[in-house]
């Protein structure tokens, strides 16, 4: 125990002595947590729309103002030439064109129907799909308003209808930050701990102090624990500041689940993650090699963890990779505990899997570290 305490004292001194490393560990993740959730918003807004009005009637202008006032569209053109609007699409100045035909208002009143032409730039498939859905809903609402305004009361009598009232659970205001902040916090803790830990033993190799340590009677497990524990505490600290300071006071996110369960899972997750970092560090000979390997795995973990794309939407081979990542399970658990208030029975299999990760990765790192005297 005394030997381990000396090793921990040495590691903490090395960490806090490096003035360039401290801001990267403690300040950078907090700044990123402040900025990233504001940018990582999947709700598509400010879709550029060019309005081609051949009718120039009161009703066509009402439709235009209804579309613009929805908050999803931004008018970049209002004219009577489809060719000019198409040039805006080709110049990437417009995403969508609505063409109002001649006699739009007259035909709508006299004949009870009128066609509109909508052209959507589909280079960005997601934006095109959402833009088309938004404009379709707005036109449908506009059509209902006209029906109530122009049709006779007798014609509005319809058979009984089923009304649907929606109730949103866990995130009633549909605030996207509520969904993204816990996941981004997990990613930031993962990046800091994995990178720093993966460079740890390699730095000893490059400086030459690893030879001096190997010549001492320090056991392998003591050396591994000495490298793991400091970053374990750092990971706990970063997560706590992000959850209780930035998430609460900046984004208004208050965990509704058990903090004991959350921190228990975090503690085991950090052991698994740091085991992976130590494993990389024992295999690499230079810090550049360690950073390259760590970057490779972190990018896979980040892109295939369910942070940006739902795992259920992935192909089977991608799901297999996603479920081989410890980050996937921690993001899932964090969202479940922070937003839904899930219990132990809901996340029991997540615990089992992350414990397996922790045992396998740390045992592998212990075996790969070869101590020679």
From TrEMBL:
Pfam name, any one = ABC2_membrane_3
Question: What is the native source organism of this protein?
Answer: Sphingobacterium hotanense
Write down what this protein is called: ABC transporter permease
* Keyword check for Cell membrane: yes
Entry keyword Magnesium: no
Which membrane topology term applies here? Answer: Multi-pass membrane protein
Q: Any idea where this protein resides?
A: Cell membrane
Record-linked Gene3D superfamilies: abc type-2 transporter like domain
Transmembrane parts of this sequence? 21-40, 176-197, 229-254, 260-280, 292-311, 349-367
């Amino acid at each position: 125990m005394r030997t381990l305490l000396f090793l921990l004292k040495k590691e903490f001194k090395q960490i806090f002595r490096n003035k360039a490393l401290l801001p990267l560990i403690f300040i950078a993740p907090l700044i990123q947590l402040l900025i990233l959730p504001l940018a990582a918003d999947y709700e598509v807004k400010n879709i550029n729309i060019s309005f081609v009005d051949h009718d120039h009637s009161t009703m066509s202008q009402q439709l235009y103002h209804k579309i613009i006032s929805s908050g999803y569209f931004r008018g970049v053109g209002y004219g009577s030439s489809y060719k000019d609007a198409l040039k805006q699409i080709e110049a990437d100045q417009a995403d969508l064109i609505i063409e109002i035909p001649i006699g739009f208002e007259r035909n709508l009143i006299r004949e009870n129907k009128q066609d509109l032409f909508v052209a959507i730039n589909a280079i960005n498939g997601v934006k095109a799909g959402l833009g088309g859905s938004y404009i379709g809903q707005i036109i449908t609402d506009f059509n209902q308003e006209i029906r109530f305004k122009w049709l006779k009361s007798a014609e509005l009598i319809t058979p009984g209808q089923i009304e649907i009232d929606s109730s949103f659970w866990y995130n009633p205001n549909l605030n996207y930050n509520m969904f993204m902040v816990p996941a981004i916090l997990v990613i930031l803790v993962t990046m800091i701990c994995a990178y720093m830990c993966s460079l740890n033993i390699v730095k000893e190799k490059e400086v030459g102090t690893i030879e001096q340590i190997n010549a001492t009677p320090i056991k392998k497990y003591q050396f591994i624990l000495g490298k793991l524990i400091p970053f374990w505490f750092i990971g706990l600290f970063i997560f706590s500041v992000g959850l209780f300071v930035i998430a609460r006071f900046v984004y208004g996110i208050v965990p509704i689940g058990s903090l004991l369960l959350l921190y228990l899972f975090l503690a085991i997750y950090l052991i698994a993650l740091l085991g992976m970092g130590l494993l990389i560090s024992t295999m690499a000979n230079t810090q550049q090699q360690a950073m390259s390997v760590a970057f490779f795995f972190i990018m896979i973990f980040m892109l295939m963890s369910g942070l940006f794309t739902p795992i259920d939407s992935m192909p089977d081979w991608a799901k297999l990779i996603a479920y081989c990542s410890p980050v996937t399970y921690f993001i899932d658990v964090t969202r479940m505990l922070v937003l839904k208030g899930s219990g132990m029975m809901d996340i029991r299999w997540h615990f089992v899997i992350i414990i397996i990760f922790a045992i396998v990765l740390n045992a592998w790192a212990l075996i790969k570290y070869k101590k020679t005297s």
